[in-house]
Amino acid sequence: MYRIGTLFFMAILGGAALSACQTAPATTPSAPAPVKGFVTDEKAFDAFIATKPTAEQFKAAYPDVLLVMPNTPTTMEIRMNNSRYFPQWDEAGHITGGKFQ
Fold first, then answer.
1. How would you label 65-85 residue by residue, b for 16+ Cβ within 10 Å and e otherwise?
2. In whole angstroms, what is the distance from residue 54 CA to residue 91 CA?
3. Any idea of the CA torsion for 68, 72, 78, 84, to the nearest 10 degrees?
4. How far apart are CA 45 and CA 98, in angstroms?
5. Cα-based distances in Å from 57 to 12, 22, 62, 88, 98
6. How far is the C-alpha of 15 from the C-alpha of 77, rounded, in Å?
7. Is the pTM of this model over 0.85?
């Protein structure tokens, strides 16, 4: 009888320990869905730039917009469709602002 009580107690204790050890999976902030085409919603774009994205994050979020990197030669044409973005960078390599041209 003593042995059954001990086994029962250990089973309850083990179940409690297992349930205490289980944690919800860590949720990572999901990347925004890629925006097809050029930038038309400038408020959403400004909100995205305010997060200080890296060049890779920018290209993932806006794959159809040309991100002009430092020392990249470009033409002098004027684009009125927000398809070419000239960013400003901070020391860590994040985009802090910029302009369309």
1. bebeeeeeeeeeeeeeebebb
2. 12
3. -20
4. 11
5. 48, 32, 8, 15, 15
6. 69
7. no
Q: What are the tens digits of pLDDT across the range 10-53?
A: 566 565 555 555 554 544 455 668 999 999 999 999 999 999 99
Using one digit for the tens of pLDDT, what is the confidence trace for 18-30? 555 555 454 445 5
Evaluate whether 96 touches 52 at the Cβ level (below 8 Å): yes
Give the residue carrying structure tokens 């020392």: 71
* Burial of residue 57, with CB atoms counted within 10 A of its CB: 0-12 exposed, 13-18 middle, 19 or more buried: middle
DSSP letter (8 states) at residue 12: H
DSSP letter string over 14-80?
A: HHHHHHHH--PPPPPPPPPPPPPSS---HHHHHHHHTT---HHHHHHH-TTSEE--TT--------S
